[in-house]
Design brief:
- It is a single chain.
- With about 350 residues, the protein is α/β, with parallel strands linked by helices.
- It has 2 domains: about 120 residues, 3-Layer(aba) Sandwich (D-Maltodextrin-Binding Protein, domain 2); about 150 residues, D-Maltodextrin-Binding Protein, domain 2 (3-Layer(aba) Sandwich), CATH 3.40.190.10.
- It contains 11 helices and 10 strands.
- Strands 1, 2, 3, 4, 7, 8, 9 and 10 form an 8-stranded mixed beta sheet that branches. Strands 5-6 form a two-stranded parallel ribbon.
- α5 packs across α6 and α5 packs across α11.
- It is globular and about 65 Å long.
Length: about 350
């Protein structure tokens, strides 16, 4: 026969146990409510944009916040854009090694080709040009060396800085400018090669990027270097003491954006496409213009302020120019003979 056990709870025990039970019930209710609230609150989506470093100001100060606001107003989704900035060539190498870039902004189309070779971007995925800027020469205030064009960079005893063509798209554009200006003037490849070699005999320091080279110049190194017009103008705006020389014959660099197919899921693709489209929109182009970049739709002779502009197409396109001039002539004939100062030859990680 089972015994019926009746336990009598004293008043103090009853209150304590009721309190504990109520406390436990309250905790459970809070957890359940929190899960409901969290389930109703959409997780922010994320877009990772890799971009060459002279784009940092326009993207972080203007493009990113404006696009985030536009996307959230259109879709109701919270958006976080993560920007990663560095030398264009270095970024391409990192993406090929698995860096999680959804969209990449490169200083030249050759770096998109490298992603296609690395199977990060589909072969039929064409990069979108979003801005232009000519290559200019930056000198000390008053231009004490009397520099007017690229040939003047070969004058004896002129200490030059240069963005490193191994890592920097600006360094590669500068090589094309230094070579191409002589080729356009003379029509002779040997003359163009001689000018390129003469200029590089004066190079004393390399920066990993255009922005790093500008930093070296602002710290007092060198008397001149070749860089993007827009970055030189930005440096002037922040108070850097320099003079900008626009050669009568210079190359106009074209910058491109591409979706990194290997990193973007079908669900993320509309966001990546919308971002690239925003770069070409009136709002995006106006933002680039405020940071001294020239519009995406300029062509040929439509580059104001340049007497005789030329483009990479005049040198056979990026694939040919890179193979013959950067990988070929510069790496085989010039780089092995460089006599750089003992100070660190590569400064910083940003283009």
């Amino acid at each position: 026969m089972k015994r019926l056990v009746v336990r009598f709870i004293r008043d103090s025990d009853w209150r304590r146990r009721v309190g504990s039970t109520l406390g436990l019930a309250l905790m459970i209710a809070v957890v359940i409510y929190g899960r409901i609230v969290m389930s109703d609150t959409p997780t922010p989506i994320r877009l990772v944009v890799y971009a060459f470093s002279t784009q940092e100001e326009v993207l972080t100060q203007s493009i990113f916040p404006a696009f985030e606001e536009a996307w959230e107003a259109k879709t109701g989704q919270d958006l976080i854009i993560e920007g990663v900035f560095g030398p264009s060539g270095t970024l391409a190498a990192q993406i090929n090694l698995g860096a999680p870039s959804d969209v990449a902004l490169f200083s030249n189309a050759q770096h998109v080709t490298q992603l296609k070779v690395g199977r990060r971007v589909r072969v039929n995925n064409q990069p979108v040009g979003f801005s232009h800027t000519p290559m200019v020469i930056v000198t000390r205030p008053g231009n004490p060396r009397g520099i007017t064009g690229f040939s003047d960079l070969a004058q004896p005893g002129l200490p030059l800085l240069h963005a490193d063509p191994r890592s920097s798209g600006a360094g590669q554009w500068a090589v094309l400018a230094e070579y191409g200006s002589a080729l356009q003037d003379s029509g002779d490849r040997a003359t163009a090669e001689m000018q390129l070699q003469a200029i590089w005999r004066n190079v004393q320091l390399l920066g990993a990027s255009a922005r790093a080279t500008m930093t070296l110049f602002e710290l007092g190194a060198g008397d001149a270097f070749v860089t993007y017009e827009h970055d030189a103008l930005l440096a002037q705006e922040r108070g850097a003491l320099l003079e900008i020389v626009m050669p009568s014959h210079t190359i106009v660099s074209r910058h491109v954006a591409v979706i990194v197919d290997n990193n973007v899921t079908p669900g993320e693709l509309p966001l990546a496409q919308a971002f690239v489209e925003y770069l070409l929109s009136d709002a995006g182009q106006q933002a680039f213009s405020r940071y001294h970049l020239r519009p995406a739709d300029l062509e040929g002779e439509q580059f104001p302020g340049i007497a005789q502009p030329f483009t990479v197409e005049d040198l056979g396109g990026w694939s040919k120019a890179y193979t013959l001039l950067v990988e070929g002539f510069w790496q085989t004939e010039i780089e092995p003979r460089l006599h750089l100062e003992s100070t660190p030859t590569v400064l910083g990680t940003g283009e």
